[in-house]
Amino acid sequence: MSCPRRSFISSAGRAVLFAEITPWCVGWLPSADPKSAVSPVGLVRVTLTDYPALANVLGSVQVTVSATSVIYPIILTRLATNSYAAVSSECTHSGCVVNPFAPGTNSISCSCHGSEFTAQGVVLTGPAELNLTTYPVRQVSATVLEIQVPGIGFAVVATPLETSTGRRLRLTFPTDVGFRYEVRMRNEVSGTSSVVSFSLTETGVLNQTTFNGTGADMTLWVDASIPTGFLSVVRF
Ligand code: FES
After folding, report:
1. Which residues are near ligand 1 (CB < 6 Å)?
2. Cα–ligand 1 centroid distance for 87 (angstroms)
3. Among residues 7, 63, 71, 225, which one has the fewest Cβ atoms lying within 10 Å of its Cβ?
């Protein structure tokens, strides 16, 4: 498999907004070599079936992102069968929240003073003079999109260890109150992920699957004997 070094985080939409930290290519981790992942980019994962309007070309929705830092909702528009545009809903005139794309006017409009933008956020009509902020969006499966959003990520330090119970990976990262966390693994970049059980001690039983953020750093251990795969810490 290809194991590119990417890091990303994500956050939530109507119901599903998970903040994913760095996916580690476990099989590539040199022993005893800590890897620090600073994730300035959050990854918002959107399940298309949660947004029926996106079943149609030019369908457009407002996706609310649950993050520790304030972020305007995202306007997500289907441009074609497999093409989407994601822009910030923050109007560049005076900061009102713009409306989703309307096929009738062929624009994203702002109700405050009448500015209009294309689905890709380009100014059509003022008073706004600047385009809306755009976010990269990619389709990772038939039903899932990922939108990259700067500034809502978090960092993870991953350290491989040889323990008396086998090879493990120690993960340390900051947590926030009000969020739930899981560790997830997927075999391919675009594959679906599954929950990974972890231990709260270096040699403990790997039987934990979720925990609530406390506002303090969290350290946990997972099995690292698997040959390859992308490991992520996910924040809900
Ligand atoms: S805030 Fe949007 S047009 Fe003024």
Report:
1. 91, 93-94, 96, 110, 112-115, 127-128
2. 15
3. 225
